[in-house]
Amino acid sequence: MTTWNLEQTQCHLLICNGGSCMKRGAEKVTQAINDEIARLGADKLIHTTRTRCNGRCADACVVIAYPDGVWYGDMTPKSGRKLVRKQLQGKRLKKRIIYSYKGTFIAAKQTRKGKSKKDGLLF
């Protein structure tokens, strides 16, 4: 296993590779994001991780950018490449935001309504 040095990392993109996202092109989105990072020589600045389901299947394919805590939905390979460029500029891909973080998560206007979690339910 590899242990990456993340000291220069400015952004961590969590790319959902759960079932619904995979059906909606997550593999191609993942590849496009990684290709754009490599093309721009941004390997030290942007780190990516494939995740399992993040619980926003209605918004598939989902990419989460940290440390900002911004959730992006309906991602495509084209929007994935654009997200990388925006992150390097310190900007957001506004049309794809489904949640942003300001102490708690705030739903964007285009966010699909989700179910509430039951108290005490652990995953």
Tally of individual helices: 3
* Strands, total number: 6
Rg over C-alpha atoms, rounded to the nearest angstrom: 14 Å
Structural class, from helix and strand content?
A: alpha+beta
Report low-confidence residues grouped into runs of 5 or more.
Answer: 119-123
Q: Give average pLDDT, whole number.
A: 90
Give the strand content: 15-25%
User: Helix amount, in percent?
Assistant: 25-40%
Succession of helices and strands: EHHEEEHEE
Terminal-residue CA separation: 26 Å
* Shape descriptor: globular
Q: Strands of the biggest beta sheet: in what spatial order? A: 2-1-3-4-5-6
Largest sheet: 6 strands, mixed
Key features of this structure:
123 residues; disordered C terminus; 25% helix; globular; 6 strands; 6-stranded mixed beta sheet; alpha+beta
Task: Describe the protein's architecture and organization.
Helix 2 runs parallel beside helix 3. A 6-stranded mixed sheet has the order 2-1-3-4-5-6, with helices on one face. Helix content is 25%, strand content 22%. It is α+β, with helices and mostly antiparallel strands.
